């Protein structure tokens, strides 16, 4: 059997790392840009936020397009578009121009994650989906690990504009690689043999029959509301499903934390902890080192240890993130403590991150998933629009990051409460005694 699906996953990893680098480099560039244009923290937050407005606008249209035509054409077009707007940010001569270019960057980046997750959904059998999503999410953590020190070096040596010129280049090459190597479905690929196509397709087709593999997890299934739920086959039913909307709202809360941290951690280290730009570049990578480990581990735990349950890691991420924000408020003046706290924040925040993307896979079919994940991404990433601006406004008013971390903690606990209301789509295997007595499994 060929293993080309793992090559596709590697391409997905690199593509989304580039995508994420182009959106998140603004956090490191902001102190340099703020020094040149002289604006307040709310304005700084709005520069980061405008990306997410465009990102949210393009998600749902991209979902409908992908459900009809597939990812092969739209993903390369998306990559080319966001690479161009990354370059244009470097040419901006005003704060307003940076905002408009960030808006364009968001509009063109929006279709990429919908296309990538839809590709994972089509290219991997159910038992490997969360693992695939884990590696996909890990790419978002890999990029911020290398971005801070690289951006600081580029900005100090060549100026902040060169950051955007440099970061625009890899995307042009990746658009060509995607178009040449990735097809909408494994069966259409010349690099996938019959055995691998049958393995992927066969595992998917028999997933319902093989639900007996989903053994009962006892009290945990009661806590997470594990149920046998019919797949959403009609597009309009996506928009009436509380499970989809609840996932979207919870994701909104967690995205508020993630992108709020990504935007403000570099400035926090420079302004509150008084680190040099060089030291900031290395310490700012700490949460994303933890996030890289957490996202890969979280996907594996969800698939293997929890038998494709998604809610447990989602709940863990929301609750532990709230606790870590309390830690951030009470950090001692120690570089070791700051680095360790940021590492654990990134790790715990991302243990459940793959599950937010994998969760709708258990509720939808191959044709309705692109629209469902587009809705989740669109609504969820509005958190990335509001959060940096709210954090900036809090900084302007109170002149301390304690209120910013408190805001992030409240968002995480609200996300936790919302996740509790969602159903876990799984059919629990009946015991022999239940079959003989005609009873329905108590955990279904």
UniProtKB/TrEMBL annotation:
Alphabetized GO MF terms: transmembrane transporter activity
Q: Which residues form the Major facilitator superfamily (MFS) profile domain?
A: 8-427
List where in the cell it is found: Cell membrane
Transmembrane segments in this chain: where? 47-66, 73-94, 100-121, 133-156, 162-181, 244-265, 277-301, 313-331, 337-359, 371-391, 403-422
Q: Does the keyword Transport apply?
A: yes
User: What keywords are assigned to this protein?
Assistant: Cell membrane, Membrane, Transmembrane, Transmembrane helix, Transport
Gene Ontology cellular component annotations, sorted alphabetically: plasma membrane
Q: Name one Pfam family in it.
A: MFS_1
Q: Where is the major localization of this protein?
A: membrane
Concerning InterPro entries, the annotation shows:
MFS, MFS_dom, MFS_Na/Anion_cotransporter, MFS_trans_sf, Sugar_P_transporter
Topology in the lipid bilayer: Multi-pass membrane protein
Q: Give the protein name, as stated in the record.
A: Sugar phosphate permease
Species of origin: Propionispora hippei DSM 15287
Q: What is the lineage of its organism?
A: Bacteria, Bacillati, Bacillota, Negativicutes, Selenomonadales
């Amino acid at each position: 059997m060929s293993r080309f699906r793992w090559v596709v996953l590697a391409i997905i990893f690199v593509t989304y790392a580039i995508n994420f680098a182009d959106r998140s480099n603004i956090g490191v560039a902001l102190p340099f840009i703020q020094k040149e244009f002289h604006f307040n923290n709310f304005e700084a937050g709005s520069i980061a936020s405008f990306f997410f407005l465009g990102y949210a606008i393009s998600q749902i249209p991209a979902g409908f397009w992908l459900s009809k035509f597939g990812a092969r054409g739209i993903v390369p077009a998306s990559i080319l578009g966001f690479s161009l707007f990354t370059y244009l940010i470097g040419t901006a001569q005003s704060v307003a121009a940076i905002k408009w270019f960030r808006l364009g960057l968001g509009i063109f980046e929006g279709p990429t994650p919908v296309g990538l997750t839809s590709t994972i959904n089509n290219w991997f059998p159910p038992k490997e989906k969360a693992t695939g999503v884990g590696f996909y999410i890990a790419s978002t953590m890999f990029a911020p690990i290398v971005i801070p020190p690289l951006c600081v070096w580029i900005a100090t040596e060549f100026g902040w504009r060169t950051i955007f010129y440099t970061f625009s280049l890899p995307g042009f090459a990746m658009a060509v690689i995607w178009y040449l190597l990735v097809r909408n479905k494994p069966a259409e690929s010349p690099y996938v043999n019959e055995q691998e196509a049958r393995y992927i397709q066969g595992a998917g087709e028999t997933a319902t029959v093989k639900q007996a593999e989903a053994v009962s997890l006892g009290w945990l299934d009661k806590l997470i509301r594990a149920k046998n739920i019919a797949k959403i086959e009609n597009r309009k039913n996506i928009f009436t499903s509380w499970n989809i909307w609840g996932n979207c709202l919870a994701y909104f809360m967690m995205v508020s934390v993630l992108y709020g941290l990504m935007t403000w951690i570099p400035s926090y280290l420079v302004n509150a902890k008084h680190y040099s730009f060089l030291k900031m570049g290395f310490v700012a990578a700490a949460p994303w080192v933890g996030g890289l480990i957490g996202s890969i581990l979280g996907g594996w735990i969800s698939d293997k240890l929890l038998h494709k349950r998604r809610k447990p890691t989602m709940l863990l991420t929301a609750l532990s993130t709230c606790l870590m924000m309390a830690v951030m408020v009470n950090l001692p003046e120690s570089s070791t403590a700051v680095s360790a706290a940021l590492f654990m924040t990134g790790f715990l925040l991302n243990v459940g991150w793959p599950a937010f993307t994998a969760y709708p896979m258990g509720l939808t079919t191959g044709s309705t998933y692109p629209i469902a994940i587009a809705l989740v991404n669109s609504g969820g990433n509005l958190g990335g629009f509001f959060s940096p601006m709210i954090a900036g406004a809090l900084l302007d008013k109170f002149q301390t990051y304690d209120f910013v971390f408190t805001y992030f903690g409240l968002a995480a606990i609200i996300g936790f409460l919302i996740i509790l209301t969602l159903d876990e789509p799984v059919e629990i295997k009946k015991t022999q005694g239940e079959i003989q007595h005609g009873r329905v499994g108590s955990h279904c």
